[in-house]
Specification:
36% of the residues lie in helices and 24% in strands. It has helices at 6-50, 60-70, 142-145, and strands spanning 71-78, 81-88, 95-102, 107-114, 121-128. A five-stranded antiparallel β-sheet has the order 1-2-3-4-5. A hairpin with a 2-residue loop joins strand 1 and strand 2. Helix 1 packs across helix 2. The longest helix is centred in the N-terminal third of the chain and has 45 residues, at 6-50. It is elongated, with a radius of gyration of 23 Å.
């Protein structure tokens, strides 16, 4: 067979594409469970940090236990839309909700913890972002998130209001 013939080149490309495609599909399917575990760990870790929860250990189960014991999750609906709200189960009555918006490359989602009267930001943490490391991804750094702590939300003053939606 002539290795320079179009049929050989096309056949070779098809065989290589099928082999590597199957390899990628296999790796993807084998790692789905681990990816779901890591997503759940990151979410629980972000919620724990947002509420400043004490976590005994660093494993996924430790974070899951800390969040499930200290935080109640509720779904509220208004005008056909649903939101997940997190409430501290005991002690301080902080309220948190998940927010999202468009970043430069993709959606950014986070959790915003407010005081019980919804007038002050207690903490903010990001659940998912795909921004450029060293640039936009710096939103997850404490130096960025700390600038929101203690900010008041002027619900009655349209000039100073945070718009959510």
């Amino acid at each position: 067979m002539n290795k320079r013939s179009p049929a050989y080149v096309m056949g070779f490309m098809v065989v290589i594409s099928v082999i590597f495609g199957l390899g990628i599909a296999l790796v993807h399917n084998l790692s789905l469970g681990k990816m779901e575990q890591n997503t759940k760990l990151h979410r629980n870790r972000s919620i724990a940090k947002a509420f400043d929860l004490h976590v005994n250990g660093t494993s996924a189960l430790d974070y899951e236990k800390a969040v499930s014991e200290a935080i109640k999750q509720k779904t509220i609906s208004h005008k056909g839309k649903e939101w997940t709200v997190y409430l501290r189960a005991q002690g301080k009555a902080d309220v948190a909700f998940v927010f999202q918006g468009i970043g430069f490359w993709d959606m950014i989602s986070g959790i915003l913890v407010l005081s019980p009267d919804l007038s002050q930001i207690i903490n903010i943490r990001f659940l998912d972002q795909k921004e450029t490391p060293g640039l936009g991804a710096r939103i997850e750094e404490q130096a960025f998130t700390d600038q929101f702590r203690g900010k008041t939300i002027a619900w009655d003053d349209p000039e100073r209001r945070f718009i959510i939606g």
